Fold this protein.
Amino acid sequence: MSKKRRKRKNSNYQIEKKEPPKKKDIFLQKLLKNRVQITSGALALAFTITGCQAIKTFKQKQVEKQAEEQASITIKTPNNRSSLKEAESCYSIFNHEEFLFPEIKEKIVEDVDDFYQEEIRKEQEEICKQQEIERQATYDEYLSIYCQYFNFDELKVIALARQLTHNYELSFDAIIDNEHYNLDNPENACMLFVYHLYNKKYLSLEKDKYSDYFKSLTISDEIVTLQNGIYLPDGRTYTEFLNQVCDLLEMDHTYITAISYTETGRLSSNLAQTQNNFGGLRNKNGFLSYPSPEAGVIAFCTNLKNYERYNLKSIEQLSGVYVHGKRSEKSDTWIKNVRAFQKQISEEESVEKENKQTLTLEM
């Protein structure tokens, strides 16, 4: 004859069976590797994480005092089979409709909560650590890319950059002395750092200390030029890469391209085709040469960016400084050619944009 089930006694702790499991319940399930089934009413499961204390089983549920005295089971690890068996037995008692250990439940929940918070803290630390590794890898990757354009030993450049910035914790502002650069962008910072290592200007370094090191950076004297007059070695066009550099330097690419076309006869000059010099750049020894088209573009755009220190307000003022070296001596021919190319470039880009939109609609 089956015994009748007793009615539920009044209790402050009631189990809502249909309530979805809480996050901590799921966390406890993970800890026990699913060997002890824990529901929303099982937060009082008899174990603590640090001391791993639990309650011994008992036979007579009616004798609550005796059961409390036996509540000293130690579960060392979830992998301990005997302890798991005791925990399962304990759980069945805790889950019983009439049986409660409020003070023990409170202690267990506190211990579980402490462990839960500690696990969250460790997880956050691991996330931060991984983010820092990825951040440093981003700088290393950009330095590697731009070193190729200048025939630099990328490992030496990366090692130098890490040394000077304490693994990129310090901004490149501490190294590159030019207030007109936005060095918050990792790619822009790496591009300018590599270029100024090549140019040996605007670097806040002891030149005597690093002079021999600078010489050891170059690994090849090879010069790679434009292919078919307009293409870079990776297949991109001259203007595509120039637009990218202008975006990094926050400059108007139509304006910069127009100056380049003016200086090189739309890239047809011998200077552009054989020396990767796209802006008529020179020093006291004559016109400059660059090891790749990318290096030439970076040098040209950065040189124009540096003109901002003169606080030039118009193309007329720029023409005087760029052509004659004096703000007051403007060049009407140069201004006319730049404006004509700028208009032509804008019209070509408008047509190209319309063609892309038409093609998209047809598809």
